[in-house]
Design goal:
359 residues; alpha/beta; Rossmann fold; 2 domains; four-stranded parallel β-sheet; binds coproporphyrin III; binds fe (ii) ion; iron; Ferrochelatase_C; heme biosynthesis; metal ion binding
Amino acid sequence: MVNTPEPFDAVMVLSFGGPEGPDDVRPFLENVTRGRGIPPERLDDVAKHYLHFGGVSPINALNRALIDAVRAEFDTHGIDLPIYFGNRNWHPMVEDTVATMRDDGIRNALVFATSAWGGYSGCRQYHEDIRRAREVVENAPDLTRLRQFYDHPLFLDAVADAVRAAQSELPADAAPARLVFTAHSVPTAADATGGPPDAGGHLYSRQVAEAGRLVAGALGVDDYDLVWQSRSGPPQVPWLEPDIVDHIDALHERGVTSVIVVPVGFVSDHLEVVWDLDTEARDRAAELGMAFVRAATAGTDPRFAQMVRELVQERLGTATPHRRGTEPEFGVGCNGTLCAVGCCEPPARPSRPTSAARG
Ligand SMILES: CC1=C(CCC(=O)O)c2cc3nc(cc4[nH]c(cc5[nH]c(cc1n2)c(C)c5CCC(=O)O)c(CCC(=O)O)c4C)C(CCC(=O)O)=C3C
Ligand SMILES: [Fe+2]
């Protein structure tokens, strides 16, 4: 008997997860930072950011809206696959979702992870989530991750249009705005090991840089900045810099009076965007008398759901892959298999400082 592979029979949207009420905040943060050497002071701080918004991160609602939009895309394109939702750090947890899929008779699903990027946090960790869920769920379906999409034209076009919209929101008398792309910082050691061992490293920061370059190019801008945000971890551990807030200071010192911040590193307006940019960075710009507009994220643009549909169609063999970048693109894997042995190796975790060491 010929062993033909089973057809794909479902799609799972796999994301980070976020709290949906004040009581969720602490247990959510414990899940995120388990064993990661994040100082307790940082956690207290981040908890305050969440509690400032009633303990609700926008991320789950945004993912549910994305799933509705992808459902509509599937329906108009005759793609008859159910869509499931699972998270790494908060309910619906990926383990529970995979159990539900198994109970529904799903055998071979595609997985759309909501990060565009390679690297440990954006890519490998989603493979680890898939592997962990399949380990705890007996008779779990096969789960094949879709590719990284940092340079997908529909993603880049959505970001470019968000910048155009931001430009039109600037006060009429503002000077032409400096374009500043921003993405989540990661430890420089983690960035260095990003990608397969023989591919030169720094996959995450290279892809972010290329996405920024492609968006700026589409806008005809050749002088812009790329900065980082939302660093955590102990201060002695180096993370990608400069930080967005420090960069606003630096721009002010150089006489820049108007800025558009483009959170290209984030697919939707989750907490790092609404706190670190819309609160901290915006307040600093206001103190300095700078005009400040934050461009929208791509996740709610209809093109983003179209892109998810296209990525699925690529795997169904009904669409050709579209991409604009030249950086290598990885991320595909079945059942938690990495792109290559040792791909995106996490750095050694710094141990938590003891209370004695903290004084
Ligand atoms: C590269 C990257 C992305 C983009 C790729 C992707 O989208 O996956 C991302 C996304 C996100 N990060 C998020 C939240 C958090 N990240 C943390 C901590 C960390 N992030 C890191 C990196 C990234 N993170 C790293 C290296 C750490 C240090 C600890 C560790 O090595 O893992 C912490 C702990 C507290 C803190 O220190 O801030 C929180 C609460 C949320 C949800 C927000 C919401 O609730 O709306 C989202 C989408
Ligand atoms: Fe994060």
